């Protein structure tokens, strides 16, 4: 019994974050050299701030994580201005623990960055994503948006490959499996 409690205690509270990134998404791309939105849903108890990183899953346009903002308030929306990510596919947006960059709170679905001049995709709002079947509910706290600008052109960030794609649900399942394994011992 003590072993199972110890196994569950190893998972910090933030492993249970329930952010759901609604945009960018596979149906909502970003456009080079323009403003682009990040929208999400959140539930009570989620972190009040976090960092936002962009990753290219195939490392074709980025070499590791590219940090676009630090200490972002959990306001359900963030505006990224003057996006200079190389046009391409297989980007993801990650919400990362500000105190422990190896702890990933949420990942967006893959999205593309289109060349300058492309007509932007219609934005997906946090409220419409919640009403269309997305899990979680928006917090009723402070509303508003934040902005940042960044450039990945010529970026030479390095990655140690320690990025985790552990979702909140899989973290709970992993905790349960570890607890059951400890009980079996």
UniProtKB/TrEMBL annotation:
InterPro entries xref list: GPI-anchor_Adhesion_Reg, Kre9/Knh1-like_N
Ranges where the Yeast cell wall synthesis Kre9/Knh1-like N-terminal domain occurs: 23-113
Region Disordered, residue ranges: 122-162
UniProt keyword terms in alphabetical order: Signal
Record-given protein name: Mitochondrial developmentally regulated MAPK-interacting protein
Signal peptide: 1-17
Species of the source: Lentinula aciculospora
């Amino acid at each position: 019994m003590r072993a199972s409690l110890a196994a569950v205690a190893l998972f910090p509270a933030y492993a249970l974050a329930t952010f759901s990134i609604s945009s960018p998404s596979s149906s909502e791309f970003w456009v080079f050299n323009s403003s682009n939105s990040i929208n999400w849903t959140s539930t009570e108890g989620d972190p009040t701030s976090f960092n936002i990183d962009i990753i290219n899953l195939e490392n074709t346009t980025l070499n590791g994580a590219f940090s676009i903002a630090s200490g972002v308030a959990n306001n359900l929306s963030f505006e990224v201005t003057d996006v200079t990510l190389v046009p391409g596919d297989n980007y993801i947006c990650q919400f990362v623990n500000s105190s422990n960059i190896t702890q990933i709170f949420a990942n967006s679905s893959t999205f593309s960055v289109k060349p300058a001049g492309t007509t932007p995709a219609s934005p997906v709002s946090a409220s419409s994503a919640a009403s269309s079947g997305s899990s979680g509910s928006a917090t009723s706290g402070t509303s508003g948006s934040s902005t940042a600008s960044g450039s990945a052109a010529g970026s030479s960030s390095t990655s140690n490959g320690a990025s985790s794609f552990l979702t909140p649900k899989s973290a709970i399942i992993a905790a349960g499996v570890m607890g059951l394994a400890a009980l079996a011992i």
